[in-house]
Design a protein that fits this description.
This protein is of the alpha/beta class. The chain contains twelve helices and 14 strands. Strands 9-10-11-8-7-6-5-4-3-12-13-14 form a twelve-stranded mixed beta sheet.
Length: about 375
């Protein structure tokens, strides 16, 4: 195990100093259930992303660029009851944050019903949703009333024609209407995600940053990643975190704040003039595998332990065959405790050695994972 991993493990196991009633100092090891089980590299299970469908009304170039896919049969999609049952087990294991994803989660019929059920889980501290925003204006009030706390919305361009080119089917005006509706009713903080690809939308970095500053939305710029296989990823399309920040800093001084909670994907920066913040997710050039606490549940009930996984672990079959909650919990814990994923670090090592070929690994497509 490298020094980096040793440092992370040491941090996670540091002693807590507590004061007894008589003023004496008590020392106890931090083994809080809220931290969840640990994998082989000392990373706790704390966050769960649930894909509620593999369907999407867009065909974004970096995510699902083909016009047609072999969709998961409806009978294989987890029901709301099954999702809630598994989510409760994950929360009992220490998960504190759940984010709903897709495909596009808002195409799942009656989604506010699921949100209400999940929001009622004892021990869950945050329930959020990532969306392309096309249906958000209509559904935001019901989602808020059901208990949704906040939303992440994908907007890769503020130019209507370019937006249509990137999404193939998207209407920027409808997405913006959804964002402003969500903001008005209090689904905040709103985070705007933008995947930056060289030669496509890298000329809009500053305008997207300005959009966030004007409306006090948190912009999240994302390096173009090799998620799945359909997007024909090439490293020369990457606009790096350093390049993104350089462009913004020419106009606005920034102060680094780090990763929220020490484990968030984005490195956050605040504008020195006080006009909000901006973050960069740099999975390619600055991997953050060491702090990854996220598990993913696909729409057909597979537990996936890395965004770049080749496969998942079937939870649906034992669930439908009568497994008890304890059996499912033990299965999940066992999978996590064997987790060794550090794909982004391995990719950077291979890229640095000029030995990386994205096509050599058949990864699960983004439409099944939801990011």
């Amino acid at each position: 195990m490298s020094a980096v991993w040793e440092g992370r493990s040491l941090l996670l196991r540091r002693p807590a100093f507590l004061f007894g009633q008589n003023g004496s100092i008590l020392v106890e090891e931090i083994t809080r259930k809220t931290s969840g089980p640990q994998d082989t590299l000392g990373r706790h299970l704390q966050d769960l992303r649930i894909s509620v469908t593999d369907r999407c009304n867009f065909r974004c170039l970096y995510c699902m660029p083909l016009d047609e896919y072999t969709w998961i049969r409806k009978a294989e999609i987890l029901t709301f009851e099954e999702i809630v049952r598994l989510a409760r087990i994950f929360v009992d294991l220490g998960v504190r944050k759940i984010r709903l994803t897709g495909g596009e989660p808002l195409v799942r019929q009656d989604l506010p019903i699921l949100v209400r059920q999940l929001a009622g889980l004892q021990g869950l501290s945050e329930l959020s949703l990532t969306t392309n925003g096309a249906y958000l204006a209509d559904l935001a009030p019901d989602l808020k009333a059901a208990g949704l706390k906040r939303v992440n919305v994908s907007i890769d361009s503020l130019d209507a024609q370019k937006f249509k080119k990137i999404t193939k089917r998207g209407d920027l005006a409808k997405v913006l209407a959804g964002v402003f509706t969500a903001n008005r009713i209090g689904l905040r903080p709103i985070k705007i995600n933008a995947v930056i690809e060289k030669g496509l939308n890298d000329d809009e970095i500053l305008s997207l940053a300005d959009f966030g500053r004007i409306h006090l939305f948190s912009m999240r710029f994302i390096e173009y990643m090799d998620v799945g296989n359909a997007n024909s990823w090439r490293s020369d399309k990457i606009v790096t975190k350093a390049e993104i920040l350089s462009i913004i800093r020419r106009q606005y001084p920034l102060r680094e704040m780090g990763r929220s909670g020490g484990t968030a994907p984005a490195v956050d920066f605040e504008y020195v003039d006080g006009r909000g913040d901006v973050g960069v997710i740099s999975s390619v050039t600055e991997p953050f595998c060491f702090g990854c606490t996220r598990a993913r549940l696909t729409a057909d009930g597979r537990l996936v332990t890395c965004l770049f996984s080749e496969k998942g672990f079937d939870l649906k079959s034992p669930l439908r065959q009568g497994a008890t909650d304890q059996q499912l919990s033990s299965m999940i814990q066992g999978i996590w405790e064997k987790r060794v994923d550090r794909y982004s670090e391995e990719r950077l090592e291979a890229l640095t050695a000029n030995q990386y070929d994205a096509s050599h690994r058949r990864k699960i497509e983004m439409i099944s994972l939801g990011g």
